[in-house]
Amino acid sequence: MSRLIFHLALKSWRGRKATVILSIISITLSVTLFLVIEQINRNVKDSFAASINDLDMVVGSRNSPFSILSATVLGMGFLRNQIDYSSYEKYSKNKLVKEAIPFSLGDNHQGFRVIGTLPKYFSNSYRKKSKLYFGVNALSDRSPLSKTFDVVLGSKVAKQLNYKLNQKINLSHGSHKDSAYKHQNLQFIVVGILKPTYTSTDSYLFVSLNAIEAIHHGWEKGAPPVEQMTINQEQKFFVKKISGFFLFMQNRISVLRLKYAINNDKIEPLTAVLPLQEMSRLWHQLGSIEKALKVISVLVLFIALLSILISSFSTLQYRKNEMALLRAIGTSPQGIFFLFLVENMLISTLSLIFALGFVFFGITMLSSSISTLLELPFVYKLLGQVELVYIGVYLLVSLVASGLPAIMASRQAILDRLTTRS
Amino acid sequence: MGFINIHNLQYSYATKKTPVTSNWCLSIPTLKISQGENVFVYGPSGCGKSTFLSLISGIIQPSSGELEIMGQDLAKLGSHKRDMFRTKNIGYIFQQFNLIPYLTIKENIILPTLLQKKLVSVENFEYLISRLNLEAILDQMANRVSVGQAQRAATARALILRPPVVLADEPTSSLDEGNQERFMRLLFEVVDQENSTLIFVSHNKALAASFSHKIELSQYSQAKSSKNV
């Protein structure tokens, strides 16, 4: 019986091909839209989370936590004030700290940020975890940034400026693209190009702290050096000031304790930022936008399912005779119910399958271009927990949307007399 | 004992708005139909033709009185059992919309056998389609055939399970005269062949001539309103 009903449902589609195809298309589109919004939503979050990864703390001069976070992790804005290198040294020796990495911001190359740091930036375990290791393009014979004029490029920098390994480039002082002063005499050599990470790292140029000092050598009074200086590769500079440092903890539990200690440093006014905490504060503030997006996509989905209900109801009238006939020749009211239910559920289920297919193949094929476009790592997870819940709700709602007309149909077929009124 | 026995049957369309007592529609003191009989039920519109058919098929139940078909009092059956009884024992030919539009003629004819999970003899199927001249259109979609073809297909569908009773509700009203005559001849032939009792309802008195048993439905009708029933 159930197979026969299924069969009948498919056959009845044949008689209404255009309507059925149109409603499958419209519902497929809305489900696709919903899934895509969900994907982007999660990917934006994941991308920021990836930028943070295992980073426990960022320390800078006294400043608002958010500006420190945005200048370092998010790559927006910069830090005006510097801190003493000795502060970094002090905290790197703290027994709660596993590793500390100093950084110096403020310079720029063709609009891309130049960040001065130590070679251990690249060997740090959390960077490795987030696949920030060197790509195949790295020069393997020495560790990067071990020489003063080494530069490592983020993937986007290399791509946009068309820089190759071993190429010599000039870096300038100041963080603006149209910086007036250029240090034509300081030539850096590209020793590594990072793989794309789709985080702000892609737009960075990494040099050694020494190099930052070298760039500013002779600039101590705030003006360009009067005479041309020659600086050779082996020349060491005494690093006095840095923008801040990253901290990785031995144990996350002690993070608040250390934060308190840093914020209350007796020697220098410092601000310690917990990126995860700051980010969740940010998400909290952006939450309403996220909610609005979600509400829109839920509404789109709801309207799509409503269209099943409406189109099914609208067919009730002209299928009245068909129902009466089916009843007369042996279909039970339950049979009529299931016929309608199956017809409608098939539409919503097929639409769901199509939409999942579209999203899956679309993302598989377009993920790299989407990543470039959105500057996000498009790590899709097609059937995450969230999606499974949504799919469950979707099927439930479509069951109701399919069931209501089905109930109407079966009841109508009982109440109606067999004859057609003449 | 007749094949169909009606005794003191009364029926009214009782609704909450119209109390049962105020609007009697159909009242049949006594009526007997025997097996294999071809009965012509004459009923101009508005006299309870549809009601009569619905009563006999158990779609609706009498307000009072007895209605017995093949010794079975339909009032004593539950709705599910009544459904079963109807589909097992009664074949229908309607005035129009006799076929499921999205099925082929063949699928329409065998649909009752599928719905009731009954096997049907190939001979019976072949007899019906050849006698009713349906071979050529078996694989056509039901919404593509002419009215005459549709009514013949409906006849085959009604008879495929050899039901004891065949109810025909104005099956010829949409046919032209020549077709009407041919259709009636075929209908009698196949119904007699299957030894079914035919209850043929029509407002066209000209068709009554070939029936042995005639019932004037208007004599039972006491409709006060001109409600179309």
Number of helix segments of chain B?
A: 6
Helix percentage range of chain A: 40-55%
What is the CA-based Rg of chain B, rounded?
18 Å
Q: What low-confidence regions of chain A span 5 or more consecutive residues with pLDDT below 50?
A: 129-137
- What structural class should be given to the helix and strand makeup of chain A? alpha+beta
Helix and strand run of chain B: EEEHEEHEHHHEHEE
- Give the overall form of chain B: globular
Oligomeric state as shown: heterodimer
The number of distinct helices of chain A, counting runs of at least 4 residues, comes to 13
Descriptive account of the structure:
- The complex is a heterodimer of chains A (422) and B (229).
- Chain A is elongated and about 100 Å long.
- The two termini of chain A are 33 Å apart.
- Chain A has 422 residues and is of the alpha+beta class.
- Chain A is built from 13 helices and eleven strands.
- In chain A, the strands form two sheets. A nine-stranded mixed sheet of chain A has the order 6-7-5-8-4-3-10-1-11, with helices on both faces.
- Chain A has two domains: 2-48 and 286-421, no CATH class; 57-273, no CATH class.
- In chain A, helix 1 packs across helix 12 (333-374), helix 2 (17-52) packs across helix 12 (333-374) and helix 12 packs antiparallel against helix 13 (385-415).
- By secondary structure, chain B is of the alpha/beta class.
- Helices cover 31% and strands 22% of the residues of chain B.
- Chain B is built from six helices and nine strands.
- Chain B has helices at residues 49-56, 79-89, 105-115, 122-131, 147-159, 177-193, and strands spanning 4-12, 24-33, 38-42, 64-69, 72-73, 90-93, 165-169, 197-202, 213-216.
- In chain B, the strands form two sheets. In chain B, strands 6-7-8-3-9 form a five-stranded parallel sheet, with helices on both faces. A four-stranded antiparallel sheet of chain B has the order 2-1-4-5, covered by helices on one side.
- In chain B, helix 3 packs parallel to helix 5 (147-159) and helix 5 (147-159) runs parallel beside helix 6 (177-193).
- The longest helix of chain B is centred in the last third of the chain and has 17 residues, at 177-193.
- Chain B starts with a strand and ends in a 13-residue tail after the last strand.
- Classes of the chains: A alpha+beta (422), B alpha/beta (229).
- At the A-B interface, helix 1 and helix 11 of A face helix 1, helix 2 and helix 3 of B.
